[in-house]
Amino acid sequence: MTKKICILGSTGSIGVQTIDVVKKLGIKVVGLSAHKNVELLIKQARDLNPDILCIGDEKYYTLLKENFPDKIVVTGEEGLISIATYPAADLIVNALVGISGLVPTIEAILAGKKVALANKETLVTGGKIIKMVLSQKQEKDSLPILLPVDSEHSAIFQCLVGEEKKNVKKIILTASGGPFRGKKLKDLQNVNVEDVLMHPTWNMGKKITVDSATLINKGFEVIEAMFFFDIRCEDIDVVIHPQSIIHSMVEFVDGSVKAQLSYPDMRLPIEYALSFPERGKQIAVPLDLVKIKNLTFEEPDFDTFFLLKIAYECAKKGESYPVALNAANEEAVKYFLEGKIGFVDIMKYVAKIIESHRVQKVETIRDILEIDAETRQKFKNLVEGEIS
Ligand code: NDP
Ligand code: MG
After folding, report:
1. Structure pTM?
2. Whether residue 208 has its Cβ less than 6 Å from ligand 1
3. Strand, coil or helix: what is 57?
4. Model confidence over 135-179: pLDDT tens digits?
5. pLDDT tens digits for 97-110?
6. From the CB of 205, is ligand 1 less than 6 Å away?
7. Looking at ligand 1, which residue's alpha carbon is closest to its atom 5?
8. Which residue has a Cα nearest atom 22 of ligand 1?
9. Residue 178 contacts residue 244 (beta carbons within 8 Å)
10. Which terminal Cβ of the chain has fewer Cβ within 10 Å, N or C?
């Protein structure tokens, strides 16, 4: 069982829930990081007394250092790497949002740490490279280095315990359908930021909540699953399951299907990743199926939520496509949250960027970061040209 951890993104939705879990499990936190929310970081540091603290935004460095003169205080991207590779930690929880999670994940693996990965953008953009790094570091018959935190991937991971890869026929990812399930494009023209942030079953950070409303989140999870479980996107299905009780399923060659069920509470997958190969202490509320009564399923509406279809196409094409998809989407979500574009525009502009994308080989981290930067610039040129 994990003894000492660092939490990257400790002030976010997953970060805060991770702190709740580690307190209950008695795990020691030796490092914390935030981007701008220095007040919460200070509060967490007083409570947990870690050795090292990182604040992404350099303007808060002095304030943090004044509060903790005896601790190691670091900042910026390099600071994040110092936390990801901090010698005393045996596991790093990556709860960063966006592509900022990629390099720290790689550095942590290279430094011999286990990584509990919530940051899905890491595998969407860098899956191929992470796989290469893992193949150097992962010893045969030893416990996995990379542990999923995303609830669907934790569910699949749990279903696969004791199973052989050759017996897996298909993965079935469940999706709640988000706040606009059943709506058509014409109904979505005037939805505002508040409507989008009202997720029916999960309480999460803003970026992933917007991604869940467009359903690109599920597309990202298809790509994430390809790398986590070494499976083709053709063998991954998505099914809408509005109650969010079944977190995903695996179908085997004999037709048997295994599922993992629980109330939607991220503390369970976090606890599983931190306790693996053991089980935790039942922090989550026990499931009452009689009270729940109905578990229902629907086909996704690929016409309205066409980014899911585009994500499948990008998954199949691979190389620079998922990187471009992620970059365009990160920019689109930012513009939307700033009130500069509408909800349907997120989908429209991301689709336009992918339509004009020309494939490039991805061999190195630098390739990924260059494609990311180019795509963001293309996005800005496109959107600024249209909205000004
Ligand atoms: P939040 O936005 O709530 O938190 C993000 C965290 O990362 C915060 O601590 C934030 O700091 C920090 N951060 C933001 N930008 C940067 C940056 N550029 N550099 C360094 N640190 C940064 O996100 P969530 O917790 O919702 O999600 C985290 C990841 O987990 C995402 O990839 C998401 O897709 C995934 N995930 C989340 C789930 C959920 O239930 N929330 C479920 C499954 C997956 P600050 O607070 O200071 O801004
Ligand atoms: Mg998920």
Report:
1. 0.98
2. yes
3. coil
4. 999 988 899 999 999 999 999 999 999 999 999 999 999 999 999
5. 999 999 999 999 99
6. yes
7. 12
8. 35
9. no
10. C
